[in-house]
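Key idea: predict the complex, not the pieces.
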Amino acid sequence: MSYDPPMSNDDFRRAGHDMIDWIADYWESVEDRPVLSEVKPGDIRSSLPARPPESAEPWSDIIDDVDELIMPGITHWQSPNFFGYFPANASPPSVLGELLSAGLGVQGMLWSTSPACTELETHMLDWMLDLCGLPERFRSTGPGGGTIQDSSSSSTLVAILSARERVAGQWRMGELVAYASEHAHSAMLKGCKIAGLTHQQIRLIPSDADHAMDAVALREAMVDDIADDRRPFFVLATSGTTSSTAFDPVDEIADVCKDFGAWLHVDGAFAGAAAVAPELRFVNAGLERADSYTFNPHKWLLTNFDCSMFYIADKGPMISALSVMPDYLRNAATDKGSVIDYRDWQVPLGRRFRALKLWFVIRTHGAEGLTDFVRSHVEMAKGFDAAIAAHPSYEVVAPTRLSLVTFRHLGGDADNERIRDAINNSGRAYLTHTKLNDQVVLRAAIGAVRTEQRHIDALVALLDELS
Amino acid sequence: MSYDPPMSNDDFRRAGHDMIDWIADYWESVEDRPVLSEVKPGDIRSSLPARPPESAEPWSDIIDDVDELIMPGITHWQSPNFFGYFPANASPPSVLGELLSAGLGVQGMLWSTSPACTELETHMLDWMLDLCGLPERFRSTGPGGGTIQDSSSSSTLVAILSARERVAGQWRMGELVAYASEHAHSAMLKGCKIAGLTHQQIRLIPSDADHAMDAVALREAMVDDIADDRRPFFVLATSGTTSSTAFDPVDEIADVCKDFGAWLHVDGAFAGAAAVAPELRFVNAGLERADSYTFNPHKWLLTNFDCSMFYIADKGPMISALSVMPDYLRNAATDKGSVIDYRDWQVPLGRRFRALKLWFVIRTHGAEGLTDFVRSHVEMAKGFDAAIAAHPSYEVVAPTRLSLVTFRHLGGDADNERIRDAINNSGRAYLTHTKLNDQVVLRAAIGAVRTEQRHIDALVALLDELS
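Result:
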């Protein structure tokens, strides 16, 4: 019985060159495609054969099907007219990093399973510290350090598990209470649920007029909980909320955490990238007092998903929470304790060589290029904010601190939903909504790799048409 | 402030073609490289600049550094002489799937964020059901279905969380007990810890002479626990253990689970892929009674990491455990309940378009090609097993059921460690060890994409030299 590879190395060269060109063509044309996919549920599946093929199919048929069957079902996150959620900007060098990682096909679960995979990652986390002006407590040369997670959901979970571990043996699981603002990302609730907390063990703290956590209310909640024999063990502060990039007062929250012995995790998933620009380092306020921190180059820093930076000031509780060492993973380097084994910093065992894409992005751009990138979006957002503020039918509803603008039509919720749907169904732009003060609010998240001023101008014109 | 991309589309075409050729060249030469990286801890980091670059660097410098600084730190998982752990076989079409996924850069967290990403994934899970002869209860058209996780660690965690959710409100967290064989993967312990169970809530059941779980001992453990007011809620059965591809008696274990109301999760991470060959479907025994099941095409089915199939018979408890719906993720399709939103099937929110690579692998190979691939490794393993059995200095220590051969030198643990290190340090092959019956045992996991009979012959010759 022999295996005859259906794609030889030479076939791979040809198909690979074509695929590279396909992607470059796609990026060149993506601006003209309807941003939001127009298919209905089931359309894609019903176009595919019900059963898998018995025999090998020619590559050309497969690629034709990508164009004909798959592309109609794509919502174009890489379109310069994509303003939904937060951006997921995949720059050309990051895509080449992903390609190289796939071609090498190494596992980074242990240092020994490919030392470069671990060491380049550690190095990139330290470089990012320098690029963003992050606190030295997160540098790998101290008791803490950093790693790449797949998402800030996973980063938040690891922070919760580390905090839980730090108090294990001291407090009972059922006594623990976790806190975040009512505007914290849903990953907070999900992470707490996964870690075994019930809804009764999670407090969503009210926010102020700017949608930032009220630190006084946080303290009061903890006092109440302690009076109730409960144990505050974890606080998530958000630097740049999903709904409106509000900034929780991390420094004041750190005071509360210190007084009550709670772990402070700061979620800067989107906004953290802004810190590459020195004048935007307000996003780092208070971080030097955080136990852990996360932000995502896969959102706003030119690196394709997944690439979430997770920093921790003391890795001890995390390793204790996540390390299990069976015989089949034992090796000399680990036994000596002289290396980092990143499997102990995450939920999965296996891991890809994700540091390559970050290395490519940082080196092709330099600090200057990264800074220009972020600044260009902030500038476009300020201009968009001004255009909305000047429009008779719209208003800006929360301060535009970075590159997300939250705004609404003055007509009410139904008008805003109508406008959102009209924009998205037009194919000319895509944006999503949220709720602030119980009102439907539109979000324009500016940050795609190919977004230029003319795309913002077109969005303003479209909003004007629909006003 | 404008952003000037350092890599234009035309630059990307050139660099991309070069990268494709680099990878093809690498695959052509990987056989001649020392399999295990020879660097010492810190070697890679010390070769890198301490600080990130201020300005953009030319692409040619970066690629030169890949060759000079990174490659010495690579342990070559794609080498035909890699026999460690389990294989992580990255075939050419799967690498192109990863590339396309990165180039499209879409998010599959919700159906609406790119319908094709969700629907192709659902379709591939159903195709895999057909290819492997898996039970109909896992088909997407029923109350259950499947998804792609990053690893079986995550699959196991999702199974544990689903099982925990099913009994929530009925039993208290601290009463729950989970069970697996002493040879279950470390992901079992890790998943239980993450879910908030203590060591006192996990039972590792003894195994029989073939290292398979003793179902009678499982039943006894549950009886004891119930007498102790504890609640058996979860059992992990392994189809193909990491140490020796032992098969737990899933059918007998299912009887016990049924009697005590426990969730049955089957971990076929490595061995499950064998089911593409009808004569190897013993690996599926008892699966029709499992609540959930996982196996990894990223191990032995030509698909680059990450691609772990996770099937569940009733998705209700999982969705209930993992769904959190904030306003900013609400959309019409989800609200109508007419679609799958895979964010509710996993820990992270974001997700890549991983189904593309599986689609490419299945279509380029067809059922026939996949079957040939798996059969070729099983045949090579049988031959290797026979060579070891016939050698005066070695013995096979567990039945070679698929493509993993566990064996040892008759001289004792020190000899086996010496031989393992000598092989690995020779650069000519790479294998890892485990412990069975308290003895150090060598593992030859056959399954790399480019492994041919001559590589097995060379391994036998090397073992003979070292005997």
